[in-house]
Specification:
alpha+beta, six-stranded antiparallel sheet, five-stranded antiparallel sheet, 11 helices, about 50% helix, about 20% strand
């Protein structure tokens, strides 16, 4: 089927070129033939007119004299007409003189009759009224073709002094059109033969040249079909210069570009799938809402890209004196590199908790910082992480270390809100941050709520470039601090969406809620 389509396409191109070429040749030959025949016919008529003028000299002289003298016999005129017959050129049929002499009072008895004829038994014949009217209308040598006869009419006038000319009659010569126009027929036949020869030659030429002209187009069409079938990167070899060569070069560039674009598209799709997998892993690592000893925990994370750099976690260390660790952090920037840094921090935190579960928050922070700083340097990245480590016991006593966004504490008893700032150092900036470490403490009573968040929540903007702001967060937590954690999360997100108008966040948004239940 493909071969048949290709052959049909090639035939279409060649047939079109052949039709175009033959049409141009035919039109040119026909136009030239028309001009040649028309001009040749005109020349023949002029020559015949000259012949008639020469033949009519003697006839006109004799006829004028006898018509003026009212000679009823017209002997001299008849002899002059018969002499024309004996010396007439090829194609000559007849010559005759028609009387048209008249006066205001009466017409001549011979008016409208033939007074002399080159043939026998035609004298005194009456001219039909239609022909007589035509002869009366002409004033000089005229001709017309009637029923295969080419008829020339030469009017006879007498011009008296100081008076209008008097019409005496008309000398008529008749010729056979077939004989007169025989040279034209020969020329027409010759032109027809040449035309057929030129037409056949043009068809052969068009067939031969169409192969050369259509071959590059056929190559382009075939390559285009292969591209349409999914075979990208197909190129054509076109050696023809000019527009066809330029078209071939453009086609090759387009084909290579399509292949490169498809390759990039495939690579981007693969990267996107990998990022989606990484995002799924990251989301799966966010702790589920859970009861941790006397505390209820609920975390939320929405990344700006497929992979985010925010971190929220909870670790329960059991034993004689159970410890409950809560972590929140934000890697500088966002995206894949930030996500990788966050995963390194998470791994370091879990490893530290497993090896040294009894460390103070400041000690744990310094240990994680040293590990993360070394890994970041090894990757030659310029990343850091704001973070805060919170450790609690079963009685609501909290100690913390690090440098991050303020923590909010809702006091259930007084329905008030406290802002607890952090005062320490960032993870991954430098090694040995012991001198910069400062520990903090607070206590949660039953019903109290600890709210932790990253700067992505605070700095979320609307279309007017206005931030959501910490004041808005404090207002929501203060107003709904006694709500269940799922309800509080919903109110915060509804308020955020109303502020941003559904715009895509520019940074990761993360927050965590910890409430002491008993």
């Amino acid at each position: 089927m493909g071969l048949f389509s290709t052959l049909r396409g090639r035939l279409k191109i060649r047939v079109r070129l052949m039709i175009l070429t033959s049409g141009i040749v035919s039109f040119s030959v026909l136009a030239l033939s028309f001009v040649v025949i028309f001009q040749y016919q005109k020349i023949l008529i002029e020559k015949t007119l000259d012949v008639c003028r020469n033949l009519s000299i003697n006839v006109v002289a004799q006829a004028q004299d006898e018509l003026l003298l009212n000679d009823d016999v017209f002997t001299s005129t008849k002899e002059a007409v018969r002499a024309v017959k004996s010396s007439g050129p090829a194609g000559f049929l007849a010559a005759y003189v028609v009387s048209q002499k008249s006066s205001p009072r009466k017409k001549s008895p011979t008016y409208g009759r033939i007074i002399a004829h080159s043939g026998e038994n035609h004298s005194s014949d009456e001219i039909p009224a239609q022909d007589l009217a035509y002869l009366n209308s002409i004033n000089n040598l005229q001709y017309r073709e009637v029923a295969g006869i080419l008829r020339f009419a030469f009017p006879l006038f007498f011009v008296p002094a100081h008076a209008d000319p008097i019409r005496l009659g008309t000398v008529v010569f008749e010729f056979d059109t077939k004989v007169i126009y025989a040279p034209i027929v020969e020329v027409r036949n010759s032109i027809l033969f040449v035309s057929v020869f030129l037409l056949l030659g043009s068809l052969v030429f068009a067939f031969l040249i169409s192969g050369r002209l259509s071959r590059p187009i056929e190559s382009l069409a075939s390559a285009a079909e292969r591209i349409a079938g999914g075979e990208l990167g197909v190129t054509v070899q076109i050696t023809t210069a000019g527009e066809i060569g330029q078209l071939g070069a453009t086609f090759n560039h387009m084909s290579r570009s399509l292949k490169d674009s498809e390759r990039l598209k495939t690579e981007q799709a693969a990267i996107k799938r990998e990022l989606e997998i990484a995002q799924g892993i990251q989301v799966a690592m966010i702790p589920e809402p859970q009861k941790v000893g006397p505390y209820s925990f609920r975390g939320f994370m929405q990344t700006a890209d497929e992979v985010g750099g925010d971190y929220v976690d909870v670790i329960h260390i059991d034993g004689r004196s159970p410890r409950f660790w809560f972590f929140i952090g934000d890697v500088s920037g966002h995206g894949l590199r930030a996500g990788l840094t966050m995963l390194m921090a998470q791994t370091a935190i879990h490893s530290t908790m497993e090896v040294s579960p009894d460390l103070e928050p400041s000690q744990a922070f310094m240990h994680v910082n040293d590990v993360l700083f070394a890994n970041i340097r090894r990757l030659r990245e310029r990343k850091y992480m704001t973070a805060a480590f919170y450790r609690a016991d079963a009685k609501g006593n909290f100690s913390f270390a690090g440098l991050h966004q303020d923590a909010l504490i809702y006091r259930a008893a007084g329905k008030k809100l406290e802002v607890v700032p952090t005062d320490g150092f960032w993870l991954g900036v430098d090694a040995g941050v012991k001198k910069d470490m400062r520990a903090g403490k607070f206590k949660l009573s039953v019903g109290d709520l600890l709210f932790l968040f990253t700067d992505g929540l605070v700095e979320s903007m609307n279309g007017k470039k206005e931030m959501f702001g910490q004041e808005k967060i404090e207002e929501i937590v203060r107003k709904h601090g006694t709500s269940d954690l799922a309800g509080l999360e919903e109110r915060i997100m509804n308020s955020l969406r109303a502020h941003t108008g559904g715009l895509r966040p520019a940074d990761d948004i993360t927050f965590a809620m910890i409430r002491r239940e008993k």
